[in-house]
Amino acid sequence: MKTIRDYETVALDDENGAVVIIDQTKLPGTTEIISLKTGEEIWDAIYLLKVRGAPAIGVTAAFGIYLLAKKIQTDDFDTFYQEFQKQKDYLDSSRPTAVNLSWALRRMEQVCLANREKPIAEIKALLKAEALEIKEEDIRVCKAIGEYGLSLVKPGDGILTHCNAGQLAACKYGTATAPIYLGEERGYHFRVFADETRPLLQGARLTAYELFSSGVDVTLICDNMSGTVMRNGWVNAVFVGCDRVAANGDTANKIGTSVVAAVAKRYNVPVYICAPTATIDLSTPTGADITIEQRPAHEVTQMWYREPMAPEGVKVFNPAFDITDHDLIAGIVTEYGIAREPYTESFREIFARKKERDSHKFN
Ligand code: MRU
Predict the structure, then answer these.
(1) Could you tell me if 331 and 152 are in contact, meaning their C-beta atoms sit under 8 angstroms apart?
(2) How far is the CA of 59 from the centre of ligand 1 (A)?
(3) Order of strands across the sheet with 244-246?
(4) Average pLDDT over the chain, rounded to whole?
(5) If you measure from the C-alpha of residue 255 to the centroid of ligand 1, how many angstroms do you get, rounded to a whole number?
(6) Does the pLDDT of residue 363 top 70, yes or no?
(7) 75 pLDDT exceeds 90?
(8) What's the mean pLDDT in 34-53?
(9) Ligand 1 pocket test target in 51, 243, 245 with most atoms within 8 Å of CB
(10) Would the pLDDT of 273 be above 70?
(11) Model-level pTM?
(12) Which residues are catalytic?
């Protein structure tokens, strides 16, 4: 039977000029595949979390900017590039915290700049190839993160995760779920606890859904239950994804991650952040320098309820992400290995490895 993991989170339909996504706001009840054709449709889909999760946002933006660039009618590079930048900046403004968005768009921009002498038609073809490569790379990167992550746990372990850093947040495997899926294929039989993740319920609607439909032993808990399952000794490791890692190892991820990390410290449970190197932003010195997206009040007060569950007009604070301080993190699992304190040094090694392997092309 077809499961949610048989669908592509993000795909390119070049013939019809569309980015094709699963509308994640409808999951788990309805699997609706939608086509995004205009800049506004792509921007809205990212802002409204129809497509979400740092890697999936990056891939969507890459396909999006390619399709928008394809529509630019000119033979003059400067005119082309000016319009390209306008569209790029627009897409980049859809969500501020996940660095994969600007990272993917910058990669696409580099393709334009490096090929400025070529005919516009050729630049467009190169943009398509780059966008497809960003997607393929995500699959290879997540698998590599899965292998490194798997080396940190043993068969039968309890794993807690927060939000959705699963296949629905990427292209296959996910980041935090990659060790779980690879372990499942190898008979590890993990017991996974999925935080529901208030206010937008990515843990309940998406993580519990994709793990459950893949046959993983998953138990859904409310966010305020992670202390209980850890105190009971049911959790051997926490695996979460992230939206941006600062140069000192401070990490922005879905709101509530820092609470899980603080509780985990209390119960000596290691917290591993699964992060493609694309999510590590060395130009951001610390977590304090990361812009945290603020979202509208109705997401907290009424969005997932039949009627409002708070007095009308009450003040609401709704940051979408929080910062987990680096000293609460046992390791940052990348596709080039596991970084540990001091992060400034281990990131230097990770990026040196990346540079070395990129010269032979990562696979
Ligand atoms: O607001 P969201 O649903 O986009 O938040 C997603 C997360 O916080 C994920 O943990 C993060 O993007 C990593 S996805 C591999």
Answers:
(1) yes
(2) 14
(3) 280-281, 244-246, 251-254, 321-324
(4) 97
(5) 10
(6) no
(7) yes
(8) 98
(9) 243
(10) yes
(11) 0.97
(12) 243
